[in-house]
Write a structure and sequence with these properties.
3-stranded mixed beta sheet, membrane, 11 strands, binds uridine-diphosphate-N-acetylgalactosamine, glycosyltransferase, 8-stranded mixed beta sheet, 322 residues, Nucleotide-diphossugar_trans, alpha/beta, metal ion binding
Length: 322
């Protein structure tokens, strides 16, 4: 009887030992696979752009090629069936830019997503017919022009404000407001979406803060002193959730109104007011200059891709005033 109990105990001990070892092996292989996965995803998304900064000081992403995984991003946004409103202003001779910008947008901009273009123009009959993909539509909004290009540019704020309040707030999930004298050259997709989105101006990327062309006169509502400022943002790209962009354009429009009453126009019109707004209301996502390059500019090594770029234009010929 004593022998039988001892053997039973030995067997139970051996079985427990083997089961424990097996469990430990299963756990070890699971944990190491996880570790490897975590390591590789870290290496492929975080370490692939050591040449540029991929976050701001307030930890907003700065979007660069090879710093995001589009498959993961599309898996987030595609099931949501989102609509992206997109505005272009084409007043006077700027109507000639519409064909290229719209055709190239159909090739590269938010492909696979619903897009609703809103084209503001004083020349509706000259809006070109562009074949739009599935889920994409275009609305023309007749708008009065001005004999000053500065006025045309800055009045976009109040017109976007009205458009969002009247329509976009109920119909779209995101909005982008883009300069029309531009062209898409490569993919621009859901990686650009965020609550409040700004773009780094190609000509000021990498320059010191003192060289930024912020409004420097304290009399203007757009005033930024020399010791302040994060980046110089381009006025050609504003984006985000409609309610966030509404707050931005409304604030800028009100500050433009105050400036007008005080007979002062900021050095870069609404772009100066936009820079002031972003200083105190930080964008939640910042697009690198890949999203606003300039055809006249060479391509430094950090620019792995040009997605959207200003086309060359003869300012004297195309603008209504010098
Ligand atoms: C810069 C900004 C622009 C705006 C402007 C303010 C960039 C790359 N560009 O561009 O966004 O902030 O400074 O001064 O950041 N427009 C017309 N008809 C006209 C004149 C202008 O439709 O006769 C519209 C058009 O949508 C154009 C926009 O206003 O894209 C801005 O005008 P611009 O491109 O001539 O201004 P620019 O190049 O100085």
């Amino acid at each position: 009887m004593g022998n039988f109990t001892m053997r039973l105990r030995q067997n139970v001990f051996l079985i427990s030992l083997i089961a424990g070892l097996l469990l430990w092996l299963v756990y070890f292989s699971y944990a190491s696979t996880r570790l490897r996965l975590v390591y590789f995803s870290y290496a492929s998304t975080r370490l692939s752009r050591p040449d540029v900064s991929t976050t701001t000081k307030w930890l907003a992403p700065i979007v660069w090629e090879d710093a995001f995984d589009l498959t993961v991003i599309d898996n987030i946004y595609k099931p949501q069936n989102i609509t992206v409103a997109t505005t272009f202003f084409a007043l006077g001779k700027y109507v000639r830019f519409l064909k290229d910008v719209l055709e190239s947008a159909e090739q590269h901009f938010m492909v696979g997503y619903r897009v609703h273009y809103y084209v503001f123009t004083d020349l509706p009959d000259e809006v070109p017919t562009v074949t739009l993909g599935e889920g994409r539509q275009l609305t023309v909004i007749k708008t009065s022009s001005s004999n000053r290009w500065q006025e045309i540019s800055l009045r976009r704020m109040e017109m976007i404000e009205k458009l969002i309040e009247d329509e976009v707030i109920n119909k779209a999930d995101y909005i982008f407001c883009l300069d029309v004298d531009s062209k898409f050259y490569a993919h621009w997709g859901a990686e650009s979406l965020g609550d409040l989105v700004g773009v780094l101006h190609a000509w000021f990327f990498g320059t010191s803060r003192d060289q930024f062309t912020y409004e420097r006169r304290p009399e203007s509502q757009a005033y930024i002193p020399f010791n302040e400022g994060d980046y110089y943002y381009g006025g050609a790209v504003i984006g985000g959730r409609p309610d966030k962009v509404l707050k931005l354009v409304k604030t800028c429009r009100m500050n433009l109104d105050v400036d007008r009453a005080n007979k002062i126009e900021a050095v870069w019109q609404e772009e100066s007011h936009l820079n002031k707004y972003f200083l105190y209301n930080k964008p939640t996502k910042v697009l690198s200059p890949e999203y606003l390059w300039d055809d006249r500019k060479g391509k430094p090594s950090f620019m792995k891709v040009v997605r959207f770029s200003q086309v060359e234009k003869n300012y004297a010929e195309i603008r209504p005033n010098p």
